[in-house]
Amino acid sequence: MFDGVARRYDIxxxxxxxxxxxxxxxxxxxxxxxxPGEKVLDLAAGTGVSTVELARSGAWCVxxxxxxGMLHAGSGRPVPMVAGDAxxxxxxxASFDAxxxxxxxxxxxxxxxxxxxxxxxxxxxxxxxxCEFSTPVxxxxxxxxxxxxxxxxxxxxxxxxxxxxxxxxLAESIRAWPTQRQLAVDIAESGWSNVQWxxxxxxxxxxxxxxx
Length: 212
Ligand SMILES: C[S@@+](CC[C@H](N)C(=O)[O-])C[C@H]1O[C@@H](n2cnc3c(N)ncnc32)[C@H](O)[C@@H]1O
Description:
Largest sheet: 7 strands, mixed
GO biological process, one term: menaquinone biosynthetic process
CATH topology of the largest domain: Rossmann fold
Oligomer: single chain
CATH architecture of the largest domain: 3-Layer(aba) Sandwich
CATH class of the largest domain: Alpha Beta
Pfam families: Ubie_methyltran
GO molecular function: demethylmenaquinone methyltransferase activity
Family: Belongs to the class I-like SAM-binding methyltransferase superfamily. MenG/UbiE family.
Bound molecules: S-adenosylmethionine
Strand content: 15-25%
Strand order of the largest sheet: 3-2-1-4-5-7-6
Number of strands: 7
Distance between the termini: 31 Å
CATH superfamily of the largest domain: Vaccinia Virus protein VP39
Binding site for S-adenosyl-L-methionine: 47, 65, 85-86, 102
Shape: globular
Radius of gyration: 16 Å
């Protein structure tokens, strides 16, 4: 599926999120509090657009994704790209100072196993930031947003994306995803401590932070 959306993935995101994706990526970088020289895993990095934003910190950031189509679509980007599955990462234990996954954890077939695997490759004391779609907190806004997600978004995707059916999956996977509080519990039960979250755009997106 991701190979099928790769060609127009970045522009489709920007259109469907009304340009909000850029600020979500900046806030993800800020939440990681990266320092120059640190080693950072950007997992499910897709075309590497999230990795390029992280690399602005001066840290060494590697994009990793199991869709070779997505990695290929981002091949001109100035960051290292490695093919790898979140369920069996091609890295040694305690390789990274920090790890992050943006709009990817929801797609990992067993996301709790993915969280445990990220913990394995992160140093003790290392940081995790999960940037993922979530549940808007204000009831009336949540109702409007769900209408947008289930009706308008697939229609817009038909005009913009190279694989519109993938955006029907996107809407359904967001609706089925755990709330902020439940995801915090799942992260804490998967090898991480000090779990906290912050809502962005009223809870359309949540940033969960944790420590290995
Ligand atoms: C919605 S894209 C997000 C890409 C990028 N992080 C961004 O913010 O634009 C989700 C990505 O998760 C990747 N993905 C899903 N399951 C994966 C897995 N088990 N291992 C590695 N990547 C995976 C897909 O290939 C896809 O590129």
